[in-house]
Design a protein that fits this description.
Blueprint lengths: L1 E6 L3 H16 L3 E2 L8 E6 L4 H20 L4 E6 H6 L1 H6 L5 E3 L7 H21 L17 E2 L17 H7 L19 E3 L22 E5 L1 E2 L10 H5 L3 E2 L2 H13 L4 E5 L7 E2 L2 E2 H9 L6 E5 L8 H9 L6 E3 L7 H6 L6 H14 L4 E8 L6 H14 L3 E6 L7 H5 L6 H26 L3 E9 L6 E5 L5 E5 L8 E9 L4 E5 L2
Parallel strand pairs: 1-2, 1-3, 3-4, 4-5, 5-7, 6-7, 8-11, 11-14, 15-16, 16-17, 20-22
Antiparallel strand pairs: 9-10, 12-13, 18-19, 18-21, 19-20, 21-22
Helix pairs in contact: 9-10, 13-15
Bound molecules: 5'-deoxyadenosine and iron/sulfur cluster (SF4).
The site of iron/sulfur cluster has 10 residues, from helix 7.
Length: about 500
């Protein structure tokens, strides 16, 4: 089958889509770059906030028009939203044929084969009744979505046992309540594979680098999270933490380097708790950084409670480990941090910032923050503003709290800050952070950086852009520079988001 992959959400999701592409190609399917050429559209989804889910719902509904023109087109939902909603998704979006969670991607070939078989028989059957079918040609071959049991290979060998078909159906809510659309036919059977694993890392799968620039690539080093921050759905959608065999990570990084890549980003929900036998994250970083001095190494994301001095020492000893640490703070208020179950207070966090500045004086620091979490007072929001003034981040991802069903906060805390207040706090924080980023960037004017050139500037073909070790984007006149090269650039001007510079001959 010809498969079109559409990815939403975090870097992990983009890395997962590359694993999915590899699994599909190995099984003889092709990944197409034009949606119009596809037999199946697989949407790799994000569930982190309600607006991310709404956007995907909208997209799924939008695809109905394509399915009306091409009744054989199938839609599958992958990733965190598939895991969170399971059969509910199939019930509510009746044009969806597949729902596959993040630990079940090895089963995609088998699942595609099954919906492919249904497609062919259903299309021919539907042709008989074509005047009555509305959006889709497939008749209602079975009343319920079928929840597949875990296969032996992908099954969870840890705390969850592999359930029987009926058990999975019950756990997931079971019966598909979706009625056949008026005047048409229900596109069942839909298939779901949503079992979580405590062992799956896709370690042996070489990702297909989708939409790659041939210069930087992601390497997934661990999966899952068990920090259970009170607001966060990730532990429920991605399961327990597990780390990938370091040898397979090193092999992947060496292969990328031999193919000409110049930068790898090691990914995990909480990379600092990477551990495989006696290899922890600092040792892993040291080994990857040792592959070649001109291979840049980045990583994301770090939980402040686990950011160790050992890691900072390794970073200081290896100039090719990039001087940029993303350290989500989430709030500046100790009471809110406790409610969020973050396992640190603001003093501890600021201590980690001091440690970064001690070991790595030129390190850029970025963060994630949530405003309007349950019961956050105006003073507590002020504490977040104060913390931003103290740390002076180079960049921040800033969010309004969004209630996620089944999380601790959804079950035990009231989402009691009015949306207008959340919005106003967010705007205030964005304005402050914009000001800080601009002031930080102004200090860069006159400095020289080694820039890894990535490509043409979006605004002008005459200019190229790249990043310095601190992950700041620098735009400069192209002259003789080419993507993939390291070039020295002097910063001459800036905005809050970008540095402008000149190549140093
Ligand atoms: N509401 C708002 N933001 C959230 N994040 C995670 N869960 C929520 C939520 N329920 C943010 C956190 C996290 C980032 C990836 O998304 O800041 O670090
Ligand atoms: Fe979510 Fe917290 Fe895990 Fe990050 S550390 S993925 S915010 S539970």
């Amino acid at each position: 089958m010809r498969v079109f992959l559409e990815t939403y959400g975090c870097q992990m999701n983009f890395a997962d889509s590359e694993v999915v592409a590899s699994i599909l190609q190995t099984a003889g399917h092709s990944v197409v770059t034009e949606i119009g050429d596809a037999d199946v559209v697989l949407i790799n989804t994000c569930a982190i906030r309600d607006n991310a889910e709404q956007r995907i719902r909208h997209r799924v509904r939008e695809l109905r028009a394509m399915q009306a023109r091409n009744p054989r087109l199938r839609i599958g939902i992958l990733g965190c939203m598939a895991e969170r909603l399971q059969s509910q998704l199939m019930a509510e979006e009746d044009n969806v044929s597949l729902v596959v969670g993040p630990d079940a991607y090895r089963r995609l070939p088998e699942l595609l084969q099954r919906i492919g078989a249904v497609t062919h028989s259903s299309v021919s059957q539907a042709a008989v009744d074509s005047t009555r079918s509305s959006t889709f040609g497939s008749p209602n071959l079975g009343e319920q979505p079928e929840m597949l049991p875990a296969s032996d290979t992908a099954s969870d060998r840890g705390s969850h046992s592999s359930p029987k078909l009926g058990e999975v159906a019950r756990r997931a809510g079971g019966v598909c309540p979706k009625p056949a659309p008026a005047g048409g036919v229900c596109q069942t059977p839909a298939l779901a594979a949503v079992e979580l694993s405590t062992t799956e890392t896709y370690a042996d799968i070489e990702p297909v680098r989708l939409a790659s620039n041939g210069i930087s690539a992601y390497i997934s080093i661990m999966r899952g999270c068990q920090n259970y921050c009170a607001y966060c759905v990730v532990p429920y959608t991605r399961g327990r933490e597990r780390s990938r065999d370091p040898e397979t990570i090193l092999r992947e990084a060496r292969t990328l380097y031999s193919q000409g890549y110049k930068e790898v980003t090691l990914l995990g929900q909480n990379v600092n708790s990477y551990r495989h036998a006696d290899v922890g994250f600092p040792q892993l970083m040291e080994a990857v950084a040792g592959i070649a001095p001109d291979l840049r190494v980045r990583f994301a994301t770090s939980h402040p409670k686990d950011l160790s001095d050992d890691l900072l020492r390794v970073m200081a000893a290896h100039p090719n480990i990039c001087r940029c640490i993303h350290l989500p703070v989430q709030s500046g208020s100790d009471r809110i941090l406790k409610l969020m179950n973050r396992h640190y207070d603001s003093a501890w966090y600021l201590g980690r910032i001091d440690a970064i500045r001690r070991y790595l004086p030129d390190c850029s620091i970025t963060t994630d923050v949530i405003v309007g979490f349950c019961s956050e007072t105006e003073e507590e929001f002020q504490a977040t503003l104060d913390l931003f003034r103290r740390v002076r981040y180079d960049y921040a991802y800033m969010f309004k709290y969004s209630l996620r069903p089944d999380t601790y906060a959804a079950r035990h805390l009231a989402d009691d800050i009015p949306d207008a207040v959340k919005g106003r706090r967010l705007e205030e924080l964005i304005a402050l952070q914009g000001q800080i980023a601009l002031e930080n960037n102004r200090l860069e004017v006159g400095r020289d950086y080694e820039v890894l050139v990535e490509g043409e500037s979006h605004r002008s073909k005459e200019r190229l852009f790249g990043r310095n070790s601190q992950n700041k984007v620098i735009v400069f006149d192209r002259r003789d520079a080419r993507p993939g090269e390291y070039r020295r650039v002097r910063v001459t001007d800036c905005t809050a988001a970008t540095l402008l510079g000149d190549l140093i001959p």
